[in-house]
Structure formats: C-alpha cells, structure tokens
Amino acid sequence: MHMGVLSSDNRGSVKTLTLVAPVQTIGDDPYDNKARSFPAVGVYRLAAAVADSNIQMTVFDNPTPITGIEFLNLAHNIARTCKKSNILGLSTTYTTIDNAIHIAHLARQKGFKGKIVIGGMGAYAPIFINEIDKALPDDTYIVIGFGELALKLLLNQDEVKDRIIISTLNQHNFNVFSVLAYRFVVEAVHMHWKYNEERLGDSSRFFRIITESHCPRGCRYCSSTHIPSKPLYMSADAIKSAVDIALDTNPTGIMFQGDNFLLGRKGKQRLQELIDTNFQSPVDLMLQTHPKDVLDVDPDHLIKIGTTTVSLGIESFSDEILSHFGKKIDADTCHSAISTLLDNNIGVFANIILTSPEATPDQVKHSLECIKQYMKRGVKFGINLAPKLYPPSILFIEAVVNKKYDEQQITYTNIRIKVGDVDISIRKPDMLLPQHDGLRKAVLRVRNMLTRSQTSENLSVQIVRLMERELEAIL
Ligand code: SF4
C-alpha cells in the first residue's frame, strides 16, 4: 500500500462516475436522534468539483437514515446502477465505513469493473485497510481529506499507483467548491426537511453552512483535529453567497457550522468584514465557536450579524475533566462565555462529555449541578456520557493503538458484513469509560436505561436525572 500527496489538478477524457454519500443506518443506539436528515454537502462538493469535466454522473445523496432492510435494497440499487461507471466513489465517515465496504463489495460481485474510491475527512479508512483489502483486493483507493482533486486525478488517469491518497484543497478552491455545493443542496433540501417533519415532527428548517474545514485546537477526544492540512476558512464573501443561496429555500434558520467561527485574528477579521457589508441574517442564526473566543469579541458584533444562538463545546464544568480532555480552558471561562451570551439575550447550546477516563464521581457531580442550573436559565444541552473513540483523535490512538487504558474501559460495536462468500467482521471501538469502577458501571447502567429520543435536549434531561441517581448511590 503506497501513500501519495496530491498537489496538482489533472484533466483528461470523458468518464462515468457514481457518487454515494455516507449511508447512515438506524441502529439501537439511544443517541440515534441523529436519525435526522441532513443534506449531503460533502458529496455535493465532490459533484460540483467535477461537474465541469464533461462527465456523466449519478449521485446517491442518501437523504435519510434508513433501516437495515432499506440499506440492503439501496446497496443492490447502487450496485446495479454503477455497473457501467468508471468510478464508484463512496464518501464515508467512521460511523458509516462498514456500509461503504458492503456497497463496494456488492458492486464488485455484481460485475462492476471500474475503480472504487472510499474516502472522507477523517483518517479512519486506513484503520480498516485489512477489511477493505479482504473485501476489495484490487483497484480500491482510499482518499483522506477533501476528495475533489483526488477524484479528478482518478477520473483522468488510468493508472494511479498510490492506493492511499491525501487530498487537500487551497483556500480559493475551498470557497469556490463550498458555494457551488450549496447550489446542489438547494435542489435537495426540501426533501430533507419534509423527512424531518413527517418522521420526526421537527418543523425547523435549519440550513447548515460549513464555514471551516476543521479545527486546529487539538482537544484529546476530537477527530476534527489532525487533518493533514492547514484549516481553511470560508471567506466573508463566500459565506454571504452561501447565505443568499440558503435563503432561496425559505429556511427557519441558518447554522454556521465549523467549531471555531470566531477563532483568532482571522475569525475576528471575517466577522468584521461581514459587519462592514451590513450582513445580517434575516432568519435565526446559530454559530458554533469555542468558549474562549466568545470572550474575545464584542457581543454586539454577534448581534449585528443576526446571531440568535451560539453552540459551544463546553464539555465539562470541572477543571480536572477539562484538563483531562486537553481543552486548554478552565471552568471559569466556560461560565463567563455562557453568562456573556445569556446577558446579551443570545441563546446557548452547550455540548458536554460527562466523564473522562480519569474522572471521579465528585467531579461529575459538580458538572451535573452546573448543567441543572443552566437548564433553568434556558441553556440547551447535548450530553455524551463518555468520550466517543473516533480516529484519529489522541484518545483513540492512546486507547486503541497504544493500549494505554484498561480493556474494560473500552466499549465496542461488532459489525458483520456478509456478501456472498466473503464474511468480514469489524470491531469498532465506541466509548472510553472512566477508570473509576463505580463511575464506569454507573455510565454503563445509565446508557442501558436511556430510551431513544428525538432531540438531544430530551436525551440530556434523561441523562442528568439518571446519572444523579447513580451518583447518589456511589457518593
Ligand atoms: S473539540 Fe472543538 S475546540 Fe477542540 S479540537 Fe475539536 S473542534 Fe476544536
């Protein structure tokens, strides 16, 4: 297996392409409130990037999470459709890689002879190289990063010697492909909202604009970091163009998704540029950012662009747990960020990871008490009981590769892919539990008691109630 880094754009003859967005299947996990439907922006970016190359393209954007039976039907449909394509491109995440392997293998079995490309932003695909090799020994390429340039290369060159390709974009391409992608999204977005309303009773229509490629901060549990390129930021102009496109869909809100909208000089400069051109979102605007960055800007500037809610990666109100996570902020900063926003009538959505591998019951209890107080003040929460193990996060490397933690601290999901005579087992690491015996058992008990909820807020209320009860028994 070779690894190559792309640096140039290649063009060539007319080809046929089948593109598949990550296929999410609905499981038993109570956290499957993500059974919401979101437009497949990543795959639209790929489509937009090659759309001018005079190629014939079929895109499966998989707008909705589906059941296991529905997945099998979809996989057969894709395998039939792609038969004559030169390339079958499968965009995937860590959560959906087994579905991507399944589809690719079925396509081969049904006679697909072209190149198979499996890729995504995380560097998770190499972790499953053995599984990918077993299912698809020939002509399978793994693309890490933004696949636009890799896809062009693979479309235009018959022989590409590197099977693992690291594909990055420059700032200009990032802006252009982003805006083009949203034009494709508009075509499909109504289908997503219709699904959310009919199946989940959710009538909000939030249009997500991904304003950064990834985050450079390096929190230990986070997979957004360690992407093999510098972060790219959508310019103020590109954001405004994307918002104009979004407004054509009559959304109830717009979300600037990217984890670090206000980060550093660049973030503040972009905010200022938006203000200078009198940009103001005419619908609810939610932006994602780091608690520390909230304290570096004038809240009036946030209000000027129409911000109604800020989503913050708080993670914990315990200094010790924040330090375990390598969050590089203290609890006081988190409190100040929340208070500043609430005092300025800006809503807050706070993401929490309740336990770290080194957490004690006291630290978790303190965090829970703060969460309850903030819930009374209208703060909405999304709570995870323990960090998820997503590659290539530091915790994943420590726990799965370097085996730093006790095996009983790691939970797994076991997946079996059976297509014809090929039978593949994938054991995916899931959560990293606390070392503290009572706390670890409490997390597992609460997880088993959770019932599936349609919103992360409802799930969070359940978690707080159940976890408090568990801690009472321990302390
Ligand atoms: S958790 Fe948030 S701040 Fe930390 S690295 Fe990930 S995206 Fe950045």
Describe the structure.
With 475 residues, the chain is an alpha/beta fold. The protein folds into two domains: 3-167, 3-Layer(aba) Sandwich (Rossmann fold); 187-394 and 443-474, Aldolase class I (TIM Barrel, Alpha-Beta Barrel), CATH 3.20.20.70. It contains 16 helices and 15 strands. The protein has helices spanning 41-50, 68-81, 97-109, 129-135, 148-156, 171-200, 236-247, 264-276, 291-294, 299-304, 319-324, 331-343, 361-376, 394-401, 437-449, 456-474, and strands at residues 3-5, 16-20, 56-60, 87-91, 115-120, 140-145, 164-167, 206-210, 253-257, 284-289, 307-315, 347-353, 380-384, 410-419, 422-432. The protein has a seven-stranded parallel β-sheet with strand order 1-7-6-5-4-2-3, with helices on both faces. A six-stranded parallel β-sheet has the order 8-9-10-11-12-13. It has a two-stranded antiparallel ribbon with strand order 14-15. Helix 1 packs across helix 6, helix 2 (68-81) packs across helix 3 (97-109) and helix 15 (437-449) packs antiparallel against helix 16. The protein is globular, with a radius of gyration of 22 Å. The relative contact order is 0.10. Mean pLDDT is 88; it is low at 1-11. It binds iron/sulfur cluster. Residues 215, 217-219, 222, 224-225, 259-260, 290, 313 line the site of iron/sulfur cluster.
